[in-house]
Design the sequence.
């Protein structure tokens, strides 16, 4: 028996496919009132184009667990930051070759980002804006590989 | 200014800025910049949708009706965002000046008692900080670059400067705005234009430049030709 919470938590983020929405920190609440399940999520960025897909995926996952009356609500407070990404999520990002964000604090662009492939700190930012709103494009000077970095927000 | 007017100003600034930035798509000076400007446009569009949806609830209209079915006189955006992109330096001057305004504005709104507005502003503020950083870095790179890039960046600053008075005629003080802009111009070795010159306005009351009409014609044509069409 899968609970609505477990079903929603297992939904994979469509843009960071190695993370579930729970590990990414955008699943805020799952409430059951009688027959009705209300799932609350929050966007990473206001214009995140993946929100519609995430809503549909959550609907489908909770229905598949046997609950037909599902509502997905969106909240903006407290605002998502990269600090909401769990430690397990960070480890998964690194394992997938995506450099995880630094913890906490204001945006410090001077901090070095380690290469997720060889671990070298000798890296450079190619572009602050990457393949999706939440990522920047970096390159390792040691192994010459480009890589994505989830930028601190 | 009532709550709906404020939401329309916020939403229209973001919407028109997004539409202008999107024009760079596939024609930026380098591929990374293409992605960057598209991302900034997406941030602005995301904020615009939230502000306009909120405004529309008081007006009995949805976000699409507000974006696609209003005429130019009904838009409340500042003139700066509707100005043409010009060369890349003009686009960066516009980005720097707009984000130097949106950042303190969103910061102030995030502390307001209207919880819904405060939550949107708190979210958008984090994105604005990136926009300001991007505009600043390019302004410095071009201003403190070659003779040609310096000349173009100075021309861009001089050209857009008059339109910044409209930004600081309301909730953001000139002092707070300058605090974000002056250090960047200094580092870019650019001269700060005087503040006693021409100061066009009218955007907040719906009196726009002709550029907005052309922009709206392109943005609204599909929706108006095929009412109710969906992707
Ligand atoms: Zn490496």
Sequence:
């Amino acid at each position: 028996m899968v609970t609505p919470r477990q079903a929603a938590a297992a939904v994979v983020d469509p843009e960071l496919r190695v993370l579930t929405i729970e590990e990414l920190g955008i699943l805020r609440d799952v409430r059951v009132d009688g027959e009705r399940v209300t799932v609350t999520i929050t966007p990473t960025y206001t214009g995140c184009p993946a929100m519609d897909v995430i809503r549909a995926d959550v609907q489908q996952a909770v229905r598949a667990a046997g609950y037909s009356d599902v509502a997905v609500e969106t909240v903006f407070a407290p605002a998502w930051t990269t600090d909401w990404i769990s430690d397990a999520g960070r480890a998964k990002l690194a394992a997938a070759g995506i450099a995880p964000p630094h913890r906490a604090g204001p945006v410090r662009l001077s901090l070095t980002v380690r290469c997720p492939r060889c671990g070298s700190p000798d890296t450079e930012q190619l572009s602050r804006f990457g393949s999706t709103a939440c990522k920047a494009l970096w390159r390792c000077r040691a192994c010459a590989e480009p890589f994505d970095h989830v930028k601190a927000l | 200014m009532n709550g709906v007017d404020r939401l329309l100003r916020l939403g229209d600034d973001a919407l028109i800025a997004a539409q202008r930035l999107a024009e760079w798509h596939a024609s930026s000076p380098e591929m990374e910049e293409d992605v960057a400007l598209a991302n900034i446009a997406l941030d602005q569009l995301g904020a615009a949708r939230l502000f306009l949806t909120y405004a529309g609830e008081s007006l009995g209209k949805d976000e699409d009706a507000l974006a696609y079915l209003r005429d130019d006189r009904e838009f409340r955006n500042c003139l700066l965002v509707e100005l043409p992109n010009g060369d890349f330096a003009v686009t960066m001057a516009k980005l720097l000046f707009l984000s130097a305004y949106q950042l303190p504005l969103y910061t102030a709104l995030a502390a307001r008692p209207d919880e819904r507005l405060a939550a949107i502003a708190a979210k958008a503020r984090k994105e604005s900080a990136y926009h300001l950083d991007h505009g600043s870095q390019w302004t410095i790179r071009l201003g403190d670059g070659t003779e040609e890039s310096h000349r173009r960046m100075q021309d861009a600053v001089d050209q857009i400067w008059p339109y910044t008075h409209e930004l600081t005629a309301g909730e953001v003080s000139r002092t707070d705005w300058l605090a974000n802009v002056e250090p960047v111009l200094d580092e870019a070795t650019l001269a700060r234009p005087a503040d006693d010159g021409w100061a066009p306005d009218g955007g907040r009351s719906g009196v726009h430049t002709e550029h907005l009409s052309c922009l709206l014609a392109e943005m609204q044509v599909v929706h108006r030709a095929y009412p109710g069409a969906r992707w």
